[in-house]
Amino acid sequence: IMTLMPSYCFHGLPGSIMVSKYGTRFADEAANYHVFNRYFEAHDSGADHNEQVWPGYLIVDAKHTAAYGPLMPNEGESSSFDSLEELAQAVGIDYKNLSWQIEQFNSFAEQGYDPQFMRGESIWDKRYCENNGGDYAAAQPNVSMAPVKEPPFEVVAVYPSVLTVRGGLKTNGKAQVIARTGEVIKGLYASGSWDT
Length: 196
Known about the structure:
Blueprint: E1 3-4, E2 16-19, H1 33-42, E3 56-60, H2 62-68, E4 80-81, H3 84-91, H4 95-111, H5 123-132, H6 134-138, E5 153-158, E6 176-178, E7 184-189
Parallel strand pairs: 1-5
Antiparallel strand pairs: 2-3, 3-5, 4-5, 6-7
């Protein structure tokens, strides 16, 4: 099974759900990667099994794949399954819990409201899905949710990661890289994200 970090763009788009190995959701799947990493850190998976949740398992259905493309498994590794039961068995997810969680999630998606994690309610969730979800997202009652029920199903393992770099190349206002001598290095440019 392919592994990805939480910045993976598909995890908040309609037709996707993320669960722990226990088969239960633990996060607003559409949350930005800074917030999403915190879900991995803070999740208490319940009194019966108070363990870390990662990896999380991103599961998508055929409609998600048709709208956004496949999850791109590593060569030689199958991540496509004809049933959720087959997927759960192959990956090691508790199928009984997964079946219940998918049924509950699909009900939320059809209603357009997620009382469990408020998926699609934050400005980030809405803007991200409005800008990246296309026609499939626009056709849903909640732009970040659609039922996960059409086989085949794909799955990838998702681990927490650090995506923010504190440091790097020194640049000027034109994105030109500045050498240690203080001079511009001709033809060399750099960019990145800035975070507070």
